[in-house]
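We include the entry.

. . .
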Amino acid sequence: MANETELEKIDRAAEYFERYFEFEDAVTVSMENKEYLKTYIHDNDYVVKNFNIKNKIIKSLGISIGIGLAAFLLLWLLLGTKLIIVGIIAGALIFIGAGVFGIALNKYRLTAAEQKQVEVNEGINEQIIMLDDRIKQVERQRDDYYKALEKRVPFMSLDYMKNVQQIKQFLVDGKADTCEEAVDMFEESMLLQQMTDIMTKSETIEPVKDDKERFGDPLKIIKENKKKRKKEKKAKKDKK
């Protein structure tokens, strides 16, 4: 197993990465909240369509007819057939009055619903503006933190942040003595997997006579890449 210092180094890097992912999650959650809030913003046509004033007016007129008919029957029973015309006129006036009142009431309710939606839209737009500012702020913090990570974790590419536990396992298993070696082994395993996937895919498309001729020797490529990376690291150290 690798010495404690190397394990501490990889664990510290994992903590740094976890903090970076917290920034990522904060941005994602804020953007999801923004999209969710947008579902509550509606134009006036939407309010009118959902209020369905025509159906409400028809119901009001139906109620008015019922009230007018009930008034006519009551007066007919009280005054008798001699004053039936008075009952008809009274019932008609009650029907008209109730109908006008019902129509006016529904128009008032529609206007109130439209005004309420305007207020809701304004409130949501204010929240969206605040979220946009919050997203920009967190994105700046995330990007600044990413730049700092490049200096804090010089032994590996930040493209492998999500694979830090796999890299650590090479240290835990004793296959690597340093974080740099663990990263090299991870890259080698990743390259081998890629080559295997390519060759497997090619076999399903057409017969392959000699994979090494077409793709080269994977082990040889890995060794060459490893030497190349070591030269690059040495060159960087010499520049310093």
Observations:
- The helical segments are 4-38, 44-51, 53-79, 84-152, 164-172, 179-205, 211-215, 218-239.
